[in-house]
Amino acid sequence: MVLSIESSCDDSSVAVTRIKDNKLLFHRKISQELEHAKYGGVVPELASRLHAEALPRILEEAKEYFSELKAVAVTNSPGLSVTLVEGVTMAKALSISLKIPLIGVDHLKGHVYSLFIDKPTQFPLTVLLVSGGHTQVMEVQSLEKMEVVARTLDDSFGESFDKSAKMMGLPYPGGPEIEKLAKGADPLKHPFTIPMSQSKLIAFSYSGIKNAVRLAVQEAKDESDYPDIAASFQHIAVAHLTQKLKKYFKTHVPKTFAIVGGASANLYLRDKIEALLKPHGASLLLSELKYCSDNAAMIGRVGVEMYRDKKFSALKDLQVSPKSQI
Ligand code: KG4
Ligand code: ZN
Fold this sequence. Notes:
The longest helix has 26 residues, at about 225-250. The protein is of the alpha/beta class. The chain contains ten helices and ten strands.
């Protein structure tokens, strides 16, 4: 078995995955959302302290598996350095005390493998990763061959939901809040402009929409206007993604397309992407809802692949990095 640890942002999570069949045997996650909600976003130092408290508690629960562990896998990039280091330190301690090898996992590869937690891998894949830290399209041939073909120039998709929610006094994380508020409201009430629609560049930008939302919130007569603002924002945020993807598909027709990352839970986004794929006959692959947001099960799934390939790191070589290896 491989034990995996995730602490790249505000979720402390541990999983145990069986190597012979990738079966997830143990999975716990303690989310810090409530603690960060009062600040309207993740406070890195607070997150780091909460990981230091939560991880040993969850590891204690996983103790019965310790004698059967063949390796310990841990997210070492990308993410907040001060929170990544909590998981990595814990993993190094386990590696030393249990005398098992250490595996450093890239969090973004984890999100891709969240698609395969309970099924075999399926490549090639065109993947849209939408999370709080990332918005990018990747061409994925294998665990080792992942190429970013489009990315955001500024804010991420999830971050724009978080910031817009904050402007309307909604708690963190804002994505599910905005989606809920937008339900049944008018997505065309506020005709926000789609970013970069005149540009040939296949890339994303979310900082402009945020400012348009700020103005709409300032001009709102009261909170009863917020559902239409939320719906109009969500509509444009998704339209920006689909417009750029449509352009990209003109030269790169996908066979199988996947959406991963915390924001892939958004049902409005899923519907629009599904409609976009239809004329291409491409199928849509999604993670189970519980594996969309950050979790150690997806890190463990990568961990078992890396274990098979003997992709181990020496203790002194495994460092944390805010940047992805992809
Ligand atoms: O992948 P994730 O858990 O953490 C990162 O790696 O960033 O993604 C969290 C992000 C947050 O910005 C959150 O607001 C967003 O995903 N999110 C959503 C939805 N659920 C979560 N955004 C839009 N709609 C949702 N339903
Ligand atoms: Zn993530």
